[in-house]
Design brief:
Number of domains: 1
Oligomer: single chain
Radius of gyration: 19 Å
Distance between the termini: 36 Å
Structural class: mainly beta
Number of strands: 14
Largest sheet: 14 strands, antiparallel
Length: 252
């Protein structure tokens, strides 16, 4: 019996803290962002337990910032947060604060899924105030950040096309995510089988995207992103995973 209890404890310790998500509490992924051949910035994706409006939630966040030497050419300080209800896996609140060169953007969405409405706030830098409006949205809408974690929860396979309702930047839309193919990729975990996915319409999750974005995720239950390529407002970038915390793989 004593040995059985030890086995059970060991199994529990290695299970995700919440069985209905594809990540562990405290998962933190750090990417090196290359602009051409230059390592220009660092970006993080993080998921940790939190609360919002009295509800237990995941605080999903991205943070992207250029290295000091690159700031003189094009300074980036981007931050996006989503509070994702642990029970429904729908967003409660979404905030975005972008600074890319001279470009600035601040947005807030607060979601009411029972009525399929959202309060949208857009900051006017000229007037120094948030302008607010209530708007209808598609049912079961994700925001652009929670949509990625929602996709990670799906059973994906090549040639598959998923449809996800996304509400962001004062718009609500039905978005297509394409699973292109399987591909083995060299990563910090070693050579890993990955799925190559493409969201057909996504904006402002990490940098202000202006074109196609391709993401490589591990072909397993966790679907950890290990590489991203995208066109952005100042050119194009490749982001590669360089550090990972609270993930089921060991860094080699």
């Amino acid at each position: 019996m004593r040995h059985l209890m030890l086995v059970l404890i060991a199994l529990i310790c290695f299970l995700p803290l919440n069985a209905n998500v594809a990540f562990r509490d405290g998962e933190k992924l750090v990417f090196t962002v290359k602009y051409g051949i230059v390592s220009a910035a660092e970006a993080t994706l993080e998921a940790k337990s939190s609360s919002m409006n009295g509800r237990s939630a995941w605080n999903l966040s991205t943070d992207a910032r250029t290295y000091p030497f690159f700031d003189a050419f094009f300074k980036v300080r981007d931050r996006v947060d989503s509070w994702w209800d642990k029970e429904t896996l729908l967003p409660i609140k979404y905030t975005k604060n972008l600074q890319e060169g001279k470009y600035r953007q601040r947005r807030i969405h607060t979601f009411d899924h029972s009525n399929n409405t959202t309060n949208y706030q857009k900051y006017s830098f000229r007037q120094g105030i948030y302008k607010s409006e209530d708007m209808k949205m598609l049912a079961n809408s994700q925001d652009v950040l929670s949509a990625f974690y929602h996709v990670r929860n799906q059973n994906l396979k090549p040639k598959q096309r998923l449809r996800v309702n996304i509400t962001s930047d004062g718009r609500t839309m039905n978005t297509e995510i394409i699973v292109h193919r399987r591909e083995k990729v060299k990563t910090i975990f070693g050579d890993i089988n990955c799925l190559v996915i493409e969201p057909k319409l996504i904006s402002g999750a990490v940098f202000k995207q202006t074109g196609r974005i391709i993401i490589w995720i591990t072909d397993d239950a966790y679907k950890i992103p290990v590489k991203m390529e995208s066109a952005v407002s100042f050119g194009s970038f490749v982001a590669e995973l360089k550090e990972a915390y609270n993930v089921p793989y060991k860094v080699k």
